[in-house]
Amino acid sequence: xxxxxxxxxxxxxxxxxxxxxxxxxxxxxxxxxxxxxxxxxxxxxxxxxxxxxxxxxxxxxxxxxxxxxxxxxxxxxxxxxxxxxxxxxxxxxxxxxxxxxxxxxxxxxxxxxxxxxxxxxxxxxxxxxxxxxxxxxxxxxxxxxxxxxxxxxxxxxxxxxxxxxxxxxxxxxxxxxxxxxxxxxxxxxxxxxxxxxxxxxxxxxxxxxxxxxxxxxxxxxxxxxxxxxxxxxxxxxxxxxxxxxxxxxxxxxxxxxxxxxxx
Length: 263
Ligand SMILES: [Mg+2]
Known about the structure:
Elements: H1 5-8, E1 25-28, H2 38-53, H3 58-61, H4 63-78, H5 82-96, H6 103-117, H7 127-135, E2 139-145, H8 148-158, E3 166-170, H9 175-185, E4 192-196, H10 199-209, E5 212-215, H11 223-226, E6 237-239, H12 246-258
Parallel strand pairs: 1-2, 1-4, 2-3, 4-5, 5-6
Bound molecules: magnesium ion (MG).
């Protein structure tokens, strides 16, 4: 058997082409797109502040700001998710209290993390129907980041795993990660739509590669995920308020991609 050059040539360069011939894949984020997540982190942070309030005057301590500084610096060490949050809280507690934090309070912080990890999965209202509808027309995949164990458990408990052709749990959602996934999927950026609540993780990197995005903001966003610059006028992005808007937004993108309307 001989492969002629003509048989292999057509695919060359296609993966990196910004424009495709139409939408071939729709990807969904997990946390705060399929299921609630940030609310639990916000709760944990409020309880952390209560604990710290036993040691210092909260009005002067800039607790939220200092905790966030630890969380941000620790992303490179521990990655995203509950474990990194807990370790950052312990570090921040030690520093903010001038090393006076008691062992029982450290235990409380670890207990909060465990509680967060076993919280039942709560799907956003209408999301299952929206994903099922989109999955009946397109290949859908799930791309989520965070603690591997926790994300695997949430995917399993969501009861939605069957809808996705592939489930990717990644350590960071940046242009490099999306480019690698698109290469693996054999999909050009212009044939790809990412749906998610985070401009930083779901929308900006995909737009930068030439892909499409549907931004569905959640009512609360971690400072880190809100920290992004996105061209609000991008013709390759749509914004929706709730899962009910997803099917029409994807249909609009499919039509725009097919007509070659986007730059
Ligand atoms: Mg998210």
